[in-house]
Design goal:
- The complex is a heterodimer.
- Chain A has 9 helices and no strands.
- Chain A is mainly α.
- Chain A has 2 domains: about 110 residues, Rna Polymerase Sigma Factor, Chain: A; about 90 residues, Winged helix-like DNA-binding domain superfamily/Winged helix DNA-binding domain (Arc Repressor Mutant, subunit A).
- The longest helix of chain A has 24 residues.
- The termini of chain A are far apart.
- Chain B folds into 4 domains: about 60 residues, no CATH class; about 200 residues, outer membrane lipoprotein receptor (LolB), chain A, CATH 2.50.20; about 90 residues, 2-Layer Sandwich (Histidine-containing Protein, Chain: A); about 180 residues, no CATH class.
- Classes of the chains: A mainly alpha, B alpha+beta.
- At the A-B interface, α2, α3, α4, α6 and α7 of A face α2, α4, α5, α6 and α9 of B.
Amino acid sequence: MVFLMAKYWLTTKNNEAGEPWLDVAQSLDVRGAPSLEQKTTELFELFYEPVYRYARSLIGSQAEAEDLAQEAFLRLYTSLQEGQAIGNARSWVFRVAHNLAIDHLRRASHLEQAVPEVWQMSEERPDVAPNAEQRMIEQERRQRLRRAMMRLSPQERYCLDLRAEGLSYREIAEVLGVSVSSVNTFLSRGIKKIAGELHE
Amino acid sequence: MNNRSKNWVRLAWHPPDEELLAFLDGELSAKQAGKTRKHLESCWACRAKREEMERSISAFINYRHTALADVAEASSRAQMRFASKLNRLAAKQSEQPQLFHRYGALACQFFLFQPAVWATAVVFLVIGLGVWFSLNRRVSASELLQRAARAEADQLNRVSDSVAHRRFQVRRRPSVATPEQVVNWEIWNDSVNRRFAQRAIDKGGEQSAITQSSFSQALSAAEKRRAQRLAPALEVLLDLERIFQANQMDASHPVSAAAFQAWRQSIWRQREEVSETRLADGAEALTLTTAAATRASANGITEAALVVRMKDWRPIAQRLRVKAEGAEMEYEITELAFQVVSLGALDTTVFADRGALPPPPSSASSPASTMAPAAPTASPSSPVATAELEVDALERLNRANALLGEQLSLTRAPDGKLIIEGIVETDARKSEILEALKPVAGDPAVKIEVNTVAEASARQSQSASRQIIVQDARVAQQEILVDAELRNYLGDTRGLSGRRLEQEIQRFSAQICNRSSRARSHALAIKQIADRFTPTQLRSLDQATRQRFNALLVEHAQGYLRELEQLRLQLQPIFPAAASSRSAVESKISNDEDLVRAIDRLFESAASNDEALRQSFSVSTEKTPAAMAPTSGMASLSSTPAFPTRPHSTLTASA
């Protein structure tokens, strides 16, 4: 019962921006409440896919992105275990994953490569257009978008990716360690660049 | 400014791109959002800009979606990998107690980050200081059990080939005014070969022999001998054994987190609490008390408590309240001594067990056993072997592991003599089997002819009629049938590649084949045992013999089940669809004819499972359609007759 309430509490106690908060009281070991392992597993189930997708869009490699995203959740567990203050669990995990990905790219000296391979979608990707003409149009669209991706600055791309995963401006700001108004600016510029490529 | 000029100002103002996007994203304050919304209503240019933004967003989202399309597939596998990583991490961290640390830090976090609750918290802190100390160290029931289970595993892992040796004191307290009974109980758990041995020691210090089987044999032997001294002690332990069995607890692991958890999960819990206690030696302990909500049937546990020492998270005592006929009984099992020894260092007599078996009824001068004297049932002049003698021979062969696929057979000659014959690989094996059969060898109704391969070929008198040959699992260098699936699984989830992947594929396949052949051997043993008697003969067995016969069957049924379950666990991640559909064909066993039929079906299905798995996991020269073999194998794996799923209940029911 307490477990169910805690789960309800965790998933419904949102602030105005709809951010899920990891409630502090929930982490206290109330009798019958889930263990930290269980809590971490729950958070993993909630946020793993978005975090993995984000990591994947940053570093491209499937296996490395998976390891990295999982590492972020293991660190969440360790931090909870150590009693560290974690306000918003979602942005916390995203921030750790982001930093791990940047470290990884630095080590592999790929940072200068603005767009990872996963974005350089080639024509082998499944094509759903039914006829030749539409296929041409679709290919043209993809090429334009690929060009747009190349034009984005890393910060713009991070912001767009995080926003695409449903994070609020404030959460994005927490992940990237920038101000909320910078997030707004990066997003707006990014969208302008995409629009420019699509409609030129 | 009048209204009209205000309107013009509003028309002349256009929200900047950032603001428009923030508006679309719901990030503006209510006031700003209202202003922007109003402007959009009247401005075509900004509405067009909004459309353009939305189109760009949806183009980006679609592109991203296609680029990252494979994410969802990876997710379920990732979950499994993460669970094991988390378990490892948790196990590592639980070595240092984190509880107090965690509470302290969390309390800090609570105060520091939510200043609004400062005042309330301080009041609470002052009032609840006393309560705080008693509550904040509470551990949840599942955490307690997890820690205890982990601690137990750690202790066993410290010694290679470990055997846990425990001594308990068992007290039985009937609620009516009969005196309390106290018995000492000693057990050995061999974690390598999954063997279990036990002995009872009564108040006066009299010991039963060490036996690997139930105390029921020892008890019937003691009764026969009219050695009533040990009988009450054995009765208490036998009752306890029945209680464990009736409540999903593993009787070979009393006072353990695993057994407690198994029971706990099998009931509706009415109430559960973890309380702090102090042991007699002053050490701190936690007691988990669980009460069952449903009305317990006979032998059902209504309430159980497990006492876990906090220092090392070791379960050291267990209390059971059990519903017996009309009354409630209480059992208290307290650990007196515990040690983990290496199998090599263990006294070899512990698992030898031969002394524990009653000697054959007709051989009056067999080596003395502490609790099994000879019962003069057959006169030496009659060479007809009794059913009891036959079960005895089976038991002895079983102890020597000679029923698991060796070319040995038990038959009866027309004159009623029991013939044990067969061919074994080496001289050493031959003498081992002869040694095991020694107590029955002197019986005039028994004829033993065991030869080595060399001897047999020299005599050229090899009887092939009852040979059952179990092939070895051999995985050669070529490709196996389910190569693609295995490669996919091991490559993706374990991240293996190159030589390591090849090695792992071979290792995995060999393991599956070996397990499958072990399962088949158990099924074969069951069949060999069952084939000894017709249903009519079975019914005419006396109760003690029948129980021993059943125990033999149960032992192999459990072995079979264990292997089957392991196979299922190993194969499920690779062939999820085939392995998860667990459609046991329920077949009722209400009499001995049903039992015999169920055993036949079990044997057939074990053989066909083994064939299917062997085809899939070992090298095949002709390539059949790859998808077929594992699926059909798994399908039959799941539709095994229901007989082995509850060996105990079905066998006792049919007895």
